[in-house]
Write a structure and sequence with these properties.
- The protein is α/β, with parallel strands linked by helices.
- It has twelve helices and 23 strands.
- It has helices at 20-49, 106-116, 164-169, 171-176, 197-204, 222-227, 243-259, 266-277, 297-301, 326-339, 376-379, 446-452, and strands spanning 65-66, 75-76, 95-100, 123-128, 145-147, 185-190, 194-195, 214-216, 239-242, 282-283, 292-294, 310-311, 347-352, 357-362, 366-370, 382-383, 386-388, 401-402, 413-423, 427-434, 456-462, 477-480, 490-496.
- The strands form six sheets. An eight-stranded mixed beta sheet has the order 13-14-15-19-20-21-23-22, sandwiched between helices. Strands 5-4-3-6-9-8-10 form a seven-stranded mixed beta sheet. It has a two-stranded antiparallel ribbon with strand order 1-2.
Amino acid sequence: MLDPLKTCKFLVWPTITIKPIDLLVFLLKTVLAIFTVSSISLFLYFAFYGHQPWWLSSPNCNHNHVRTLDRQSSVTTESNNISRQAYERTNLSHILFGIGGSAKTWNERRRYSELWWRPNITRGFVWLNKKPPENQTLPPTSPPYKISQDTSGFKYTSSYGSRSAVRMARIVKESFELGLDNVRWFVMGDDDTVFFLENLITVLNKYDHNQMYYIGGNSESVEQDVIHSYTMAYGGGGFAISYPLAAELVRVLDGCINRYASFYGSDQKVQGCMAEIGIPVTKELGFHQVDIRGNPFGLLSAHPLAPLVSLHHLDYVKSIFPGMTQIDSLKKLITAYEKDPSRALQHSFCYDLNRNWSVSVSWGYNVQLYPSLITAKKLETAFQTFQSWRTWSNGPFTFNTRPIGYDPCEKPVVYFLDRAEKVNGKTTLTTYKRHVEESAKECDRPDYASALAIKFFTVSNPRLNPAIWRMAPRRQCCEVIDGEDGVQNLVQVKIRGCNPFESVTPP
C-alpha cells in the first residue's frame, strides 16, 4: 500500500521522475533565457532602426533622425550631437571668398572689389597668376592676394579660350586647402564682380550649410547657355559651394580639369565635377552674370523677385546712371542699397486713377511714369535696351522683353535716383529726378503735358525685413498718396505690403 505522506516527495511519471527542486530550477532558467533573448532583440531593433522606446521619449526631445516610409532609403543626420554653432545663422565670417584675377588687370579691376570688400571683416583672397609689379602699391581697401599654384601640367584644349580657366577652376580647391576655420561657404567670383553682401548672406541662410549645395545663376543670353550649359552656375555672377560639397569637390577636381580639357571656362569645368558628384545647381535669380551688351537699364528696371546678390561684366555695358562713370554709378546705387539692402532694385507698380497714370518703381534706381493705364503684365516685362552677349543680337534671353520704340509718346517719363535717406530708423525715403536725354524729342500730345511737368518723385517705405525672402514671394504694392492735391511738380509714392485681395488691375 502506498504511503500518502511519500507522494509529496516525488512525482511518478511513466518513465521520468522529477523532484520539485528540479522543476523550480527549470522554470527559473526558462524565464532568464526569455528575458535575455528579449533584451538582445530590443537592443538590436533600436540600434538598427533608430526608434526610441516610448518610455524614454519626451515631448520636448528633438530627434535628429529623418524617417521615411521606406526603411531602405531612410536618411539620418550625420551626428546625434550637433553643436550649437550649427544652429547659428550664417554671417559674413562664415564665408570665404575666392576672387579670380590676374596681375596684369588687378590694379584696374580692384576698383570693383573695393566697392564691397570690408577690410579686416570680409574673409578671402584674390588669386593672381603672379606677384603684382613691385612699383604697384595696393591700398588696404583692396582684398589681399595669393599666388595660384602652377597649372602647366593640366590639359587645356579649348580652341577659343584661355588656359587661365584651369587656374581659376582650382581656386576653390586652393581656398579649401588653406584649412581656415569656421568656413561654411566658399563663394567664387571674378575681379569685376560686385557682391551685395547682406543679400548674399540672406540667400545663403535659406540653405543648410551642412548639406551639399551649389548655388548660383545662369547667363541672361540664351546663346551662352546653349554653348556652355543651362546646368551651370556662371562664375562671373558668382556661385556658392557649401563646405561639405567643397570637401567632395577637391577630391575629384584635378581629374575633372583634365577630363573636361575642351571646356572653355573655369565655371564649366567645376560644373563637370558637380555632374560627377551628382549635385545640381540651385538657381537663385539675384546672381547676375550680365551677359548683355548695350544699356542695362531694361534689365535692372525689371529685376526678378529676389534679393540683388551680384553684378558682373560692368565694363561691357553702359553706365547704370547716365552721365556718370560706371564706378560712380555703382557708388550711387550702393548708397541706396545700404539704406535698405533687401529692397534694392525691387520692382513695384501702381495706378493714379485720378489722372489715369501708371507708376513703376525700381527701388533705388529709377521711377517710370506712363500717362496712361498700362497692364501689370506689360509693366513687369523688361524693356529691351540691350543685345545678347556673343552676337549682339536682339535675343533670345532667359526672360521676356518688350521693344522700346523711337516714338517718344510710347516711352515713359524716366526719373533716376537723386538721393536716399533714412527716416526714423525704420523708414527710407528716396528721391528721383527727371532725366532728359540731350537732343531727345519729347511727346507733344496733350495727355503727356501734365506728366512732363512732374520733375521729382519721392518714394517712402518701411525697411524691408530680409525674412520676407524665406516666405512665398509676392511683389510689394504701392500707392500714389497725394493725387491731384500734391505739389505741382512732385509726386509722392508709398510702397507697402499688399492687402488681402489687392491687385494691380485697371478699372
